Amino acid sequence: MSTVATPAPAPRRRRRRTGLQRRQTRIGWLLLLPALAAVGFVAIYPLGKTVYESFTNQEFLQGLEPTKWVGLDNYRTLWHDTVFRDAAWLTIKFTLITVSFEFVLGLIIALVVNSNFKGRGPMRAVMLVPWAIPTVVAAKMWQWMLDDVFGVVNDLGMKLHILSHPYAWISDPATALGSVCAVDIWKTTPFVALLLLAGLQVIPRDLYEAASVDGASQLQQFWRITLPLLRPAIAVTLIFRTLDALRVFDVFSVFFGNRPDTQTMAIYAQSTIVGDGHVGYGAAISVAIFLIISVFVVIYMTFMRVTEE
Amino acid sequence: MKHRRLLVLAGVVGAIALVVSLSVAAASSNKPARVHKAAAIAAPKVPNAKAIKKKYGGQKITFVGDSVGDGHKRDLALAKRFSRDTGIKVSVVPHPAASDQSYAQLVRAFSQKSSSIDVAMIDVVWPGAFAPYLVNLKPKLGKQSKLHIKSIVQNDTIGGKLVAMPWFGDYGILYYRTDLLKKYNYKAPPKTWADLFKMARKIQTGEQKTNKNFYGFVFQGNAYEGLTCNTLEWIASAGGGTLIQGGKATIDNAKARTILDAMRVQIGKTTPRGVTSYQEDQTEHAFDDGNAAFARNWPYQYGIGATAGSKVKGKFNVTVLPHGATGKSVGTVGGWQLAVSKFSKHKPAAIEFVRYMTSPAVEKFDAITNSNVPTIVSVAKNKAVVKANPYLKPAIASVPRVTRPAKFLKTHYNEASKVIYQGINQILNGTPAKNVLPGMQSKLNQIIKQS
Amino acid sequence: MSTAAETTPAVARPVSRSRAFRRSPAGRVLAKVPFWILILAIFVYALFPFYWALRSAFMPATELFNTPIKYFPTDPTLANFREVLSSNFFQRALLNSTIVAGSVTLVSLAIGSLAAYALGRFRFHGRTFVLYLMLSMTIFPQIAILGALYTMISGFHIVWFINFPKLYDTPWALIFTYVIFTLPFTIWVLTSFMRGLPGDLEEAAYVDGATPLQVFYKVLLPLIAPGLVTTGLLAFIAAWNEYLYAVSFIQSPSHYTVPVAIVSFTAKGGNAFQVPWGQIMAATVVVTLPLIAATLVLQRRILAGLTAGAVKG
To answer: ipTM of the assembly?
Structure first.
């Protein structure tokens, strides 16, 4: 095997590999070109400008004063900003609650819809309804339904004897976070369910048939077949859901406006940039949001090892 | 399988057919009296039209006006008349419905030094912020401005320059149920806040026996600009000053603490617990559905309550807001102004348009066709106008107006207002005033120093 | 497999009692009951607010906020629907939204699937970096990049004579900016689908002399059909419902998209403070129904295409 014939085949093998490798690289980048062009064009300038602005004292309505470079001043102020710290903490709490509920509920719904039963088609359409309603409209509608005087949730709750008296779900600080989480879960579970359903549908059915014949129970099939094969879909779903939850804005804005105890990071950023007009400081906040979210992304990457084969 | 797909297809076709037939039915149906009032009364003619035509005819200006709806229709009718008479073409763009989006739109245009906006409709608290970007209207419109309410004109004068002309002027008033006052033997609406709370409590206790959703008093308690308006009324009418005076924040004083604490203990007792999330819309619904004895709101609510089909039609009236033990009744000024952009390429033509829109004839037109509160004193006294807007009765219309301290805060007004309404919202939600006001005052002073 | 099945019938395997119960007729029905309760729960959970919108759309404006609450309209009216559907304004908005959302979906799917093909089926350095680059685009809050985007679409000077076209107040501004948030997501989902397919799938096609692009649309695309439909649907809905950029980049009412139009509804003879709930609910119903119908049609499609030609190497 080793002594005589090896020198000849080796160089031939290496050349073939690099030829194929170069071809793969070339085609790969070519196929990526439209996407990179779109990204670069649309994203690099805005992102770069935001990062640059975070080092200046730019204001929205400057008047006639020029913008100055202030280095890390904005970041120093941000470090001591308790409002931002509270907002970040609230946002993270919100994210943990909603993403876990949405994942479990979404998985259940996806499993149900994926199984063979008569109402499957309409069910798939119905589950999309909450996601299809525009967020601003849905938030206003829920605000109305949760009202303590003419809200239907309190009314139904009292009629069904679940509630003893009407609750001011939105105004009361104790139930405020819960109410906004409930609405967000209602609205975005379809997104999770749809993605997981798509992942479920590519799992070949004969795997389950084989397992049934071998005597595996439903639960065993779930743990051994479904979950592992669903891992990439789960990873993508969790990452994007977490990203969106950490940037949540619309529901909080409609329910609470600028109420001090219920500001999320995105609301704080918006009110700083548009309301107060501090573009530079707002840009620093946005960069901070970016960094916080990146931490979550890194956590996901290490645990799910998504980019491996 | 095949049949099911067909069924689904049939369903989709059916849905589309339904939509199409509804729209056809709508288009061809007899639309009852949907002709807007503005068409019934003609827009007033432009005074001095010929001279204007000679100088500026043919120029094109853009007016960012009222949002889509009747306000936009009124703007279109007036712009059409103006264009016809003077030959200056006015293109009307409605501003976004949401107030903060409207603010952001103007900010973006001004910071880009864009010439795309010539005349803009600005909120009463924005002149301070936009002053560097607006034309001084005093030389040309100074004389006409003398016809308007003085406090609003003062509000629009920054550093000696008249940067905007008053156009509509809202102010806070008290709505009350005349039938309930009679039922519980009250001869007149309350004059002080203490009276209001007492009457509200008595009426609420009585009415809740038959209507569990009834509450004594509703107002705007959400953490937004409307709360700043309410707060100003409470504190100023209790003798606690107008939040910022003489360049310093004065919000933390004994009288302010008293009135705010008095308001705080009412939440959930004579007001719904959810009132700290109410804006104008919810206040109006609560009162007009017969679920409130007293309401604080802008004059617009009057027209809604008085339409046929309203539960409170004929059963309510308006008066000035109560005052504290010491102090006078006041109303916070709301409303809109018209301003000309410094970057406009047709400033004189734009100024002529503003002159037309803020003239007595047009304000009368606005008041009658759109129930807009006029800012010209003589128009507010006109019989036809008062008939269409009963809240303009002299007793109410002459209430002292207080303006929010936007002038001193200039571009930082939004930030300062946020400090105020966030703090007051905290107080209303249960924190005693003495724990919140000192912090608010020092933050406000910091912001003033930056202005 | 077949041999095992042939030999087992003769041997009676001991079956557990729970299994026997589950196989009996009674057991089979009872086992289905929790399942159907679950279905019902999901139905109610997803649909109740929509039912509420439907009920409110049929009620006259004066009755909407009445207490006690009516669960069923006692004198239903078509007035809200008439107002919404007959207004030119809303019809234009529907058209604008359809154009914008449709274009964004097509562009994202086209560019995204090509990129997913590259990232999922080819080996070269920098794949991971590109994926992360895509992800980083979606991490900034919308408001942060709003200002810069506004500057771009207002027509700005890049270098020498190259100017960015002025897209402000046209649907192109929205199509252009919505691609930012639909593209990364599309690429990530489709890449994971591409990676999930067996590694030697293209070999047969290459042996037959197919080019990479032919392999792409003849072999791979049909197999990731569920991914395409899913991301297409989600991208469409996301672009359809977007509000912040739509209200910042469009100013003429004739170019409004649906969310901006709905927010701009004003009550008849009404004031800026009044929210015309009846009309808003009617508009919501009108807007949601076609989406549901489209989903019904699409979902059946992909199921049919999926199990056929499945992965048997």
So the answer is: 0.81
Q: What is the CA radius of gyration of chain B?
A: 24
Q: What residues in chain A have their Cβ under 8 A from chain B's Cβ atoms? A: 59-64, 121, 143, 147-150, 168, 170-173, 255-261, 271, 274-277
Whether A17 is in a domain gets the answer no
Contact C259 A190 (CB under 8 A): no
Question: How many Cβ atoms are within 10 Å of B106's Cβ, its own excluded?
Answer: 23
Specify if A249 maps to a domain. Answer: yes
Chains that touch A (3 or more CB pairs under 8 A): B, C
Report yes or no on C206 lying in a domain.
yes
- Please report the residues numbered 189 through 228 in chain A whose beta carbons come closer than 8 angstroms to any beta carbon of chain C: 190-191, 194-195, 197-198, 201-202, 204-205, 210, 213
Nearest to A177 by CA among A87, A104, A64, A243: A87
Partner-chain contact C252 B93, CB within 8 Å: yes
Q: Is residue A34 part of a domain?
A: no
* Domain contains C102: yes
Look up the domain containing C129 and give its range.
Answer: 87-307
Instruction: Say how far apart CA A258 and CA A268 lie, in whole Å.
Output: 8
Contacts of C253 in chain B (CB under 8 A): 68, 72, 94
pLDDT at C213: 80
CATH number at residue C122: 1.10.3720.10
Q: DSSP string covering C78-146, please?
A: SHHHHHHHH-HHHHHHHHHHHHHHHHHHHHHHHHHHHHHHHHHH---TTHHHHHHHHHHHTTS-HHHHH
Q: Measured between beta carbons, which residues in chain B are less than 8 angstroms from residue A149?
A: 213, 215, 272, 274, 286, 291
Closest residue by Cα to residue C172 from C187, C157, C145, C154: C154
For residues A275 and C113, give the distance between their C-alpha atoms in angstroms, rounded to a whole number: 40
With an 8 Å Cβ cutoff, is A240 touching chain C? yes
Q: Which amino acid is at B136?
A: N
Mean pLDDT rounded to a whole number for chain B = 87
What would the two tokens of residue C28 be? 């089979």
- How many domains does chain C contain in total? 1
Our count of domains for chain A comes to 1
Whether residue C181 lies inside any domain: the answer is yes
Q: What is the mean pLDDT of residues C63-87?
A: 82
CATH number, domain at A202? 1.10.3720.10
CB contact under 8 A, C141 and A239: no
Contact B309 C275 (CB under 8 A): no
> What type of residue is A127?
M
Res C175 pLDDT > 60: yes
- Name the residue in chain A with its Cα closest to that of C131: A307
Local confidence band at C63 (pLDDT 50, 70, 90 cut-offs): confident
**What pLDDT, on a 0 to 100 scale, did the predictor assign at position A8?**
44
Is residue A216 a part of any domain in this protein?
yes
Among residues B233, B226, B203, B229, the alpha carbon closest in space to that of B216 is found at B203
* Beta-strand pair B60-65/B89-94: parallel
Determine the 3-state secondary structure of B192 from DSSP.
strand
The pLDDT score that the predictor gives to residue B31 is 38
Q: Is residue C271 a part of any domain in this protein?
A: yes
Which runs of consecutive H residues, i.e. helices, occur in chain C? Answer: 2-7, 17-23, 25-57, 79-86, 88-121, 127-137, 142-153, 171-196, 201-207, 212-214, 221-223, 225-241, 244-249, 258-264, 277-307
Amino acid at B344: S
Nearest neighbour of B289 by CB, restricted to C67, C266, C271: C67
Spell out the domains of chain B, with CATH numbers in brackets: 39-168+336-372 (3.40.190.10), 173-333+405-450 (3.40.190.10)
- Please say if the pLDDT value at position B306 is more than 90: no
Range of the domain at A170: 100-262
Put simply, the chain C residues between 115 and 134 with a CB less than 8 A from any chain A CB are 115, 117-119, 122-125, 127-128, 130-131, 133-134
